[in-house]
Structure formats: C-alpha cells, structure tokens
Write a structure and sequence with these properties.
Layout: H1 3-17, H2 19-26, H3 45-59, H4 63-79, H5 91-109, E1 117-124, E2 127-133, H6 139-153, E3 157-163, E4 170-177
Antiparallel strand pairs: 1-2, 2-4, 3-4
Bound molecules: protoporphyrin IX containing FE (HEM).
C-alpha cells in the first residue's frame, strides 16, 4: 500500500478527532514522531490496519465508519491527480475507466502499485455493477470512495452493497441512476 493512503488517513483523522488523539495512535508507525514518509513509499497493509484498529478503539468509532468516511474524502485526492487520462463527464463512464485508464496510466509512472480489481459491468441502461476484489479486504474503503465519486458527480444515484460471506476479499456494488 502506498504512503499517500496512510498520510491521507492521518490528515483526515486529525481533522475529525484532533491532533492529540492522532499523535498517540500513529506513534510507532512509519509516520509517527518526526519520520517523513513520501507519497509513493511502501507501507505494509498490516500497519494501516493496526492504526485504524487503534483509532477506532480510542474514539469509540468502528473500523467501517472510519474507512467509509475516509474513502469519501480520499476520492477528492484521487480525482485531482494530474493524469493524462481524460476527465469523464458522467459517473458511470468515470467508474468504468478506472481499471483500464487511470490505473494503467499510474502503473507506468509508479512501480510496484497493487491496485484492487474494480471490474465494471452495465446491468441495464441505468444500472452499473462494480466488483471490488483485493486481498487487503478494504471493501469499506471502496464503499467510501464510490460514495465520494457519487457526491462529486452529483448525479441522482443510489448505491447498494453486497458482501460475499464466502469471500471477504470481494464486494459487489450496484449503482442505480434514478
Ligand atoms: C471510486 C472508485 C475507486 C475505488 C472503489 C477504489 C478503491 C481502492 C481501494 C479500496 C484501494 C486500497 C487498496 C486495496 O484495497 O487493494 C485503492 C488503492 C489505490 N487506488 Fe483506488 N479506487 C477508486 C478510484 C481510483 C482512482 C480514480 C485512482 C487513480 C486516479 C485510484 C488509484 C489508486 C492507487 C494509486 C491506489 C494505491 C495502490 C497501492 O497501494 O499500491 N483509485 N483503491
């Protein structure tokens, strides 16, 4: 996992809970104390997980709530990355182009990226399915990012989520335009 996710999470948590709480939680992590972490430095997924668990315990929130709400905010970072890939005008086109457009372009720029699968399929004129698949099992973060994209495009779309009890690494999302 890339450093920008952990750094973005720390910024988000500082705004929501204050810098004192966050300082304790991040103590001992790659960005605790005076350590500097570059956006594209590698951070082990276990480290991200343990920071989230500690913050959830300390603030009485849930891991899910933290990840979903962070995802909504993180979407703004992703959509503002200066990439060649053309901006899409509609939400569905945008989501469909992530796996084949943005991710491939970034792959050429930054080595060792590990993107989740984000396969899209039109189920009808007004319905899009997106299947998140990743060994990191961050379906909550994926939900937050999708929610962030819906807010960004400001289209009247409802989101449904279907977890796979047999496979926690896979979550199916269905977006329906009203
Ligand atoms: C709303 C759509 C999106 C969803 C649901 C999504 C989901 C995720 C999730 C859950 C992760 C954490 C890693 C994992 O679970 O395996 C991730 C990582 C990442 N995503 Fe996305 N993403 C979206 C859009 C984008 C866009 C538009 C970009 C690029 C412009 C992007 C670039 C990245 C990068 C660079 C990483 C880090 C990969 C790594 O750590 O090696 N994502 N994404």
């Amino acid at each position: 996992m890339q450093g920008f996710i952990l750094k973005g999470f720390r910024d988000y948590a500082s705004r929501r809970f204050g810098t004192d709480v966050v300082k304790d939680v991040f103590e001992g992590s790659s960005i605790g104390g005076d350590r500097r972490l570059a956006a594209w430095d590698y951070v082990g997924p276990d480290e991200f997980s343990s920071v989230i668990e500690r913050l959830a315990q300390q603030t009485g929130t849930t891991r899910s709530d933290l990840l979903i709400r962070f995802g909504e905010v993180m979407f703004q970072t992703l959509i503002n990355l200066p990439l060649r890939q053309q901006r899409c005008l509609t939400l569905f086109r945008y989501l469909e182009s992530i796996e084949t457009g943005f991710c491939q372009e970034l792959d050429e720029l930054v080595p060792r990226l590990e993107f989740p699968g984000l396969a899209c399929c039109r189920l009808g004129e007004t319905t899009l399915e997106m299947v998140y698949a990743s060994p990191l099992q961050l379906g909550d973060l994926a939900e937050g990012l999708i929610r962030g994209s819906i807010l960004h495009f400001a289209e009247p779309v409802t989101l449904e989520r279907f977890d796979d009890a047999a496979d926690p690494a896979r979550v199916r999302f269905v977006l329906t335009r009203e």
